[in-house]
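@channel sequence for tomorrow's demo:
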Amino acid sequence: MSSQQHYLDKVSQIHSLDKIAEVRKLVDSYHEWLQEAYTQQPIAKIVLGRAFFIDHLIRKLWRLLDLEQTAELTLAAVGGYGRGHLNLHSDIDLLILSKNQINEDCQQKISQFVTALWDLGLDIGQSVRTLKETISLGQEDITIATNLLESRFLIGDENLYKELTKKVNGKSFWPSVKFFKAKTEEQQARHRKFNDTSYNLEPNIKENPGCLRDIQNIGWIAKKHYKVFDGSQLVKQNFMTEEELRELQDCREFLWHMRFALHSVAGRSENRLLFEHQPEVANLLGYGQNKSAVETMMKRFFVITRRVSELNQVLLQFFADEFVTRFRPWKRKKLNNDFEVTNGLLRARNEDVFETPAGLLDMFLLVADYDKNISGLHSTTLRLLRNARRKYEKLELCQLEACRERFMQLVKHPQFFGISWKIMHHHGVMAVYSHDWAHIVGLMQFDLFHSYTVDEHTHRLIRNLYRYTLPENKEEFPRCSAICTNYPKIELLYIAAIYHDICKGKGGDHSELGGEAVRKFCRLHGISETDTDLVAWLVENHLLMSVVAQRKDINDPQVIHDFCERIQDETHLNLLYALTLADIRATNTTLLNDWKASLLRQLYTSTQNAMRSGLEKPVARDIQEKEKRDNALDILLSNKYSPEAIDSLWQTMQEDYFHKYNSKQIAWHTQTILDAKGKDIIFAIDNNTHPGGTAIFVYTKDRAYLFASICSALDRKNFNIHDAIIMNTEDGFALDTLIVLEEEGNQASRKRFKDIQDALVEAINEDGEPSVPNRIPRQIKQFHVPTKITWVEHKNDKRSMMELEALDTPGLLVKIGRVFFANNITIHAAKVATIGERAEDFFVLTNNSGDPLSVEEKSSLTEQLCAALKINPSNKR
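structure tokens (generated this afternoon):
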């Protein structure tokens, strides 16, 4: 194997830029060697070594172009390159500094210099400025000022460079307090872009909270104030302890390792750890190649980001106390002998506040008591908390009676799940209290559905429940607010929330395993058997309401009747509804759209009404249908439509039509058809008829592949189909209703109605079967979702019900429709749900004779669907 020195010697042998291609080969060869050396050398040596190699290369080129002879011109490294840190494909930032304006001959040489660097495949960022311009721009822009703070002399006029550093380090150029404020504001703005959490599943290794930028920010602020450039000197200045310095260095090395592997896998400067890169990065880092290897790597990553975030908070707050706020009047309030509030932060008054494990929980009771006065922990307290956490991490605090007593006081405290819970979660105390919780800390979910790790998702769910209890939020979710405010034992719902996903990653059904785990927790904490049963039921059934609302026909009285039997009573219904909404909102920012909210609301009210009217006497179907007909008729007659025309049209409708739609929808369909009498293609689009979704009603002569063609045309216009009722009239017309949403989950705007119209006309006029795109999008190509067909048993034996799970590839509904058509299968209804990369669809079907499918037909259809939806590996490229 070649060595670093070998490549440095090769650089020394470059005598001309005439053969730039040969130099490019040398640079490429060096980068290939770095990738080979990556697993055999310390990462710091790799990162520093590349910067050293680039130094030699740049100086060589500078000299070859005779720029070294130019008076009052200097070349400096800035940014990360200025620190002497260059990862595999990190960009190389240069400052070409002159005393005065550069003449034309020099400009031409500089242009040749920069062009040569680009020709060598290097990612260059350069600025050419005079000294005066540089200082002026730096005073205006904190980013430029930061780059200058880390500048490093490379070659040229050294006196000019010294003049630059003297001005940059002068008191008038960003005084340290002003610099601190600007950098902390910049950091806060950056964190907001990532929803103020480290636990994003596709993190940016450079910019994410708790990542490299947060480490660098500590250094920038300290260097600006102390005028030192080495961590050990900051220890001598009592800015940080030796242990904190070593921890920061360890964290930085882990992130460097991960970033090098990411650059290697992506083949370019890439800081986003996208799902498609994660398996290969995990393999390069030695974790293995499967899904569990990715989850192990990411769990380690999230532990690192928490450590960095804590150190960043401790050190920046320490700096603020020492140099920003020390000369201002402090607002202090003594809470007890152990703690006081100082400028809104809880500060320990002595070092033995966490001498006992129970003392740790006592602090959170105090924070809950003074919820309105406390915004966070003081750096002094946080340092003590970090030490206590390490001291007690081998214990499981819930095994100690004193701790259990305090924890139950906490979950019953009306303010605990405000700032107190937030601090407990953020600083990893729950993982010390319960090893069940420790299991989910940093546990990622390798899919496109969840935006956060399991613990972060659970934290957000709990915060959503807490929001329901606050008076200022009762208008946002009035039903959930009423449920949570009026239920006398709200702590049971919080415990169910804590445990709802706690057995993910353990194999098996996490809901069932979670039910077993929470029973043990409740019994350990002295919760009654009746309350334990309720909490366990909520954990075991936390997905039930969402599944039924999105995958069942909730207009069917039998579906509501079956759901009522599972729910048992209104208490279970209320708590499950609140938990379900909070869970969906905590999964990702776009999941709970108006359409899904309307389905859940309809399921809740239908179930509540059924329970109140008596489960043993569900409203007869024929009575419901007559009420719908009569109400629809009243609407139509009030709008001057002919009773004879209405009756004539309704005579063509199949028996199920009046069961599937409400009176308002029936009136809308009828009005649309009667108003368009004589037209070959009849359709209507509306945002009010089906709450939360854009309803598309189509009435036209039926033909082969009609449904598949409509799906394909709408897909090309970037609409997502979420629900469909597919019917035929007795005289051969298709009578279909589809519910669509934009990709962001909202209804289509009036402007987009034209796109829907164009798609419908195109689909209805299309001959034959529609085409299907072959390529799989980047976001889902690394996921493997085996096609799974389940035939659902139902008391209604007139039709067959099929659930299908598959990878959500473009044209999925078209492929399914092809198979149905080839087997003379009629679709009566479809529920379409996309869960990240996974499609979960539900179909109500009959065969060519209008009967439910036989065992043989089901088996054949299953086989054909699996074959049709099989992913060709070449499409994943």
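heads up for whoever presents: The radius of gyration is 33 Å.
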